[in-house]
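#onboarding

Welcome to the new folks! Below is a worked example of what a typical request in this channel looks like: someone posts a single protein sequence, and someone else replies with the predicted structure as tokens. Don't worry about understanding the tokens yet, we'll cover that in week two.

Example request:
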Amino acid sequence: MTVDYTKKTTIVNIRDIGGIPVTHGQLKEKTFFRSGELCNISTYDISFLEDKLHLKKIYDFRRPEEIENRPDSLFEKIKYENINLMSTAGQANPSLKNMTISDNIESHMLDAYTELVLGNSAQTGYHTFLMELVKTPQPVIFHCFAGKDRTGFAAALILKIAGATSNEIYKDYLQTNEARKNANKEILATFSNRLSPKKLAGLEVSLNVKSDYLAHAFDLIDHHFGNFNSYLLDGLGLPENYTSAFQKIYVD
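Example response:
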């Protein structure tokens, strides 16, 4: 039975993607945690990640500007690494700032997922992240701002490599909408007097995920690389035996 970590910590959108059934068993539990930002979290939450979940590494997928404004809390027992997945200048990234200024939010979100699949920094970043997972197997948590797009695609990659079905991948991906309900309400309340009704409605859309966004990413993979395995090889530069090596380590 999947543990509901939202009842054990105030960290937004946190969950273990382990335990999900895959082709040859299930993804190892208590190993891959995904979440929203870890900024200004409580001492209890820090202890929870360090001493209850025994995490060893934090991967922060945000841009330097985001981190400067809202840095992760400090941990004594967990190493930290920033992997900027969207270093290209422009608005095709799902930071809170860009969520509030985009005029065409649907186009903005699709552009963001295009960048996650085809952007140089995203390909380099996901390569680094995925290679470190097999080189140094250990319990990790990965996050961005909301834990929904950059983090959501990372989780989808892990699950697909592990052998999860599309239904399981989309189920985890869409779980963000329920997990972020309260946090999204707070953000919308904060901006209620600062944005026009149109931009506020756009912000509400951008704070959630849609299956269309992830489907767009997988469609791009098929169109540009032929299939998912070729994307791993040619897009992310992973070795040919990566999938089997990953499954050997992380599938029970």
